[in-house]
Task: structure prediction
Amino acid sequence: MIILAIWASISTAFLLPFLVQYLDAEGIIMFRKEPTAYFYPADLKGMRLPSWYVTNTIPLTPDQAVLAAVRHLGSTHPKITSWDVDSIELRKQDAATWTYNLTLTDRQSGSYQFAVVRVLMDGSIWMPSAERRRL
Result:
């Protein structure tokens, strides 16, 4: 019985950082000191973004989205010189509007910064709103 309790404690301690990072990245629970960020797809409608249908050529390739995200992070985190891409997700916002959600981590500087950047199909960064709205 004691061995089972020890094993459960060790496995919980190992999995807890991954759970916290996931909850933080999804916006379920915010562990950062930054204000809560809200993304509203309705805000994209007036922006004249390139439309994309999955049978057509994509207006912004994944490598271009990574470059845009790294450029953006370079301006917001100037001391960090290298970002590792952990994931690239293509997410549909409405019938023809898609965005890239990129998860990047700084593993070189020792501060282990984690960032999620949303890149629009025109190469710009989708900046969140600090205000919560009713939908």
Observations:
- The chain has two domains: 1-30, 32-135.
- The mean pLDDT is 85.
